[in-house]
Amino acid sequence: MSSLTTNVSRSILVAIPELCTGCRICEIRCAFRHYGQYNPARARIIVARNDETGRDVPQACRQCSKCPVIAVCPTSAISRDEKTGAVVILEEKCNSCGLCVDACLFHTIFIDPTTKLALNCDLCGGDPECVKQCPWKAVQYVPIEQTSKLNKPIPPWAPTKSVNVTVEDA
Predict the structure, then answer these.
(1) For domain 11-150, is the CATH number 3.30.70.20?
(2) What is the number of other CB atoms lying within 10 angstroms of the CB of residue 28?
(3) Cβ(118)–Cβ(96) under 8 Å?
(4) Phi-psi bin for 36: left (phi > 0), alpha (psi -120 to 50), beta?
(5) H or E element at residue 111
(6) Residues with Cβ < 8 Å from 123, sequence gap 6 or more?
(7) Which burial class, exposed, middle or buried, applies to 39 when counting CB atoms under 10 A from its CB (0-12, 13-18, 19+)?
(8) Domain ranges, ordered by start, for the chain
(9) Contact 62, 106 (CB under 8 A)
(10) What does pLDDT average to in each consecutive run of 10 residues of the chain (170 residues)?
């Protein structure tokens, strides 16, 4: 795995909050695919509830093209998959320092409660389980060129750091 070449067409996960019912099937199926456990604490996608709006919003790595977590990793455990464009974490290199968690602009890298290693959406090798299992199509796997049709501006209540990132940056 190395840096992504510019001629690779990337697809990313896009959440459609208006379609999400908060069922958390995406979390459960993600954890099962990766760990063989129905344990949402080990999912690489989370469903966050906004108490002000009452809306549930699936959140997973945005696979940022200018991904700050790759640069901060002291063990080079984070790279980009050439096939899918996904930002991936090599568990055998991860030292659990948590610098990637702090560097993620959208809070979508987590520390696994069991292994204590960083985990991140790896797009399931280009066949995301959360997308296949969502009965309401609230999570979609879309070529990045089409995301502007689906993405809306980040609402002020979304859990982001004080950084303006556009769809083109993500």
Answers:
(1) yes
(2) 19
(3) yes
(4) left
(5) strand 110-111
(6) 11, 12, 13, 63, 81, 84, 85, 86, 141
(7) middle
(8) 11-150
(9) yes
(10) 49 92 96 97 94 90 93 97 94 97 94 96 96 96 79 49 42
| pTM to 2 decimal places | 0.81
Residues 123 and 125: their CA atoms lie apart, in Å, by 5
Residue type for 65, please? S
Closest by CA to 78, choosing from 2, 170, 9, is 2
Q: In degrees to the nearest 10, what's the CA dihedral of 88, 94, 96, 97? A: -90
Q: Tokens representing 12?
A: 């990313």
CB 167 within 8 A of CB 147: yes
Please state, in angstroms and rounded to a whole number, the distance separating the CA atoms of residues 115 and 48.
Answer: 23
